Amino acid sequence: MKKVNFGGTVESVYERGDWPVAKLQEYFKRDTLAIIGYGSQGHGQALNTRDNGLNVVVGVREGGVSWKQARDDGWIPGETLFSIEEAINRGTIIMNLLSDAAQSQLWPQISPLITKGKTLYFSHGFSLTYSEDTGVVPSKDIDIILVAPKGTGRSVRSLFKEGRGVNSSIAVWQDVTGKAKEKAIALGVAIGSGYLYETTFQKEVYSDLFGERGILMGALMGIFLAQYKVLRANGHSPSEAFNETVEEATQTLYPLIGEHGMEYMANACSTTARRGALDWAPIFEETTMPVFEKLYESVKNGTETRKALEFNGRPTYRQDLAKELREVDEQEIWRVGKVVRSLRPESRR
Ligand SMILES: NC(=O)c1ccc[n+]([C@@H]2O[C@H](COP(=O)([O-])OP(=O)(O)OC[C@H]3O[C@@H](n4cnc5c(N)ncnc54)[C@H](OP(=O)(O)O)[C@@H]3O)[C@@H](O)[C@H]2O)c1
């Protein structure tokens, strides 16, 4: 553990270096990790903990997409791949990686199986923070912890395979044994995290729902489209509008922000660009601030949660999401994007 000064605020950060693989294996030698759900996170976390030499079983409903995926990844029915109920019975640490809607729907049937002495693990603060809406109210006699990777399950897996690691948040909801935090840190490392930041279930879910609806996805989709449409409405060609909106951003400017920060990126641009960006940034900040405030309130008062539970609880949730995303894919901006990408020098080699 080390104390790190983040822009004037000192926070505790836990590191992988304190938990070499041999220590992890010793720590969890009497445990069976039951990974429930084999979607994006289930896949990444199950394979990484298995590769780290821990005892892992996977629990998913038979016949679904996940069951097939788990079999393809080498989980063997009856040995390491079970029904959700059977996996929970076999596990000492129940890693609930069902979709958030399924965590709520299945709670009445799985909660009696999560008995005293087991540990309940989540990768999102959703189910417990919004328990009035989700109905997820666990018993008082189990440790309850969170490890929330700050990346998709696919990156949890790919970074682990590259010998790198995703960063994750950790939190404790309930500590019966006095070991809950230690377990969260160890599991965080076991699933492939490099650094672990401390938070609470509530702060994790508020920031996560806010961020993905905001700049990570929702705001980005909306602002890209707005800029593209204004360029098109003013007579710019599709390729020019796309290049000035998405291609230059993702291919040259955003990677510089990621590697070196905003000032570095701006200094790599012309003085004309720098002057304009400095003038317009406060205008965008002021204009979007009320939207972000409205969004935070919608997260905090549970509106976003209720929408997600209703929509993703439908039997047709996969097809319904896919249909709406296909409509995005069919917008002119993203059809143009496909052509522009095909013309990148490396695509034509
Ligand atoms: N994805 C991310 O980037 C990410 C990042 C950080 C944290 N998290 C959190 O990690 C957890 C898992 O998320 P995820 O994205 O990995 O989930 P996901 O990809 O949506 O996976 C959903 C899993 O839930 C199962 N499921 C859905 N509805 C079900 C039902 N009615 N009955 C039984 N099983 C059902 C699916 O099985 P079928 O195939 O059989 O439908 C699948 O195995 C969530 O708490 C999420 O918030 C996710």
Automatic annotation (TrEMBL):
Enzyme Commission code(s) on record: 1.1.1.86
InterPro entries noted in UniProt: 6-PGluconate_DH-like_C_sf (IPR008927), 6PGD_dom2 (IPR013328), KARI (IPR013023), KARI_C (IPR000506), KARI_N (IPR013116), KARI_prok (IPR014359), NAD(P)-bd_dom_sf (IPR036291)
Pfam families given in the database record: KARI_C (PF01450), KARI_N (PF07991)
Annotated residues for binding of substrate: 270
KARI N-terminal Rossmann domain sequence ranges: 10-199
Broad class of enzyme this protein falls into: oxidoreductase
Record's keyword annotation contains Cell wall biogenesis/degradation: no
PROSITE patterns: KARI_C (PS51851), KARI_N (PS51850)
Domain KARI C-terminal knotted: 200-347
GO biological process: isoleucine biosynthetic process; L-valine biosynthetic process
Any one Gene Ontology molecular-function term assigned to this protein's record: ketol-acid reductoisomerase activity
Pathway annotation: Amino-acid biosynthesis; L-isoleucine biosynthesis; L-isoleucine from 2-oxobutanoate: step 2/4; Amino-acid biosynthesis; L-valine biosynthesis; L-valine from pyruvate: step 2/4
Needed cofactors: Mg(2+)
Cellular compartment(s): Mitochondrion
Keywords: Amino-acid biosynthesis, Branched-chain amino acid biosynthesis, Magnesium, Metal-binding, Mitochondrion, NADP, Oxidoreductase, Transit peptide
One Gene Ontology cellular component annotation held by this UniProt entry: mitochondrial matrix
Protein residues bound to Mg(2+) 1: 208, 212
Chain sites annotated for binding Mg(2+) 2: 208, 244, 248
The family this protein is said to belong to: Belongs to the ketol-acid reductoisomerase family.
NCBIfam families registered for this protein in UniProt: ilvC
Record-given protein name: ketol-acid reductoisomerase (NADP(+))
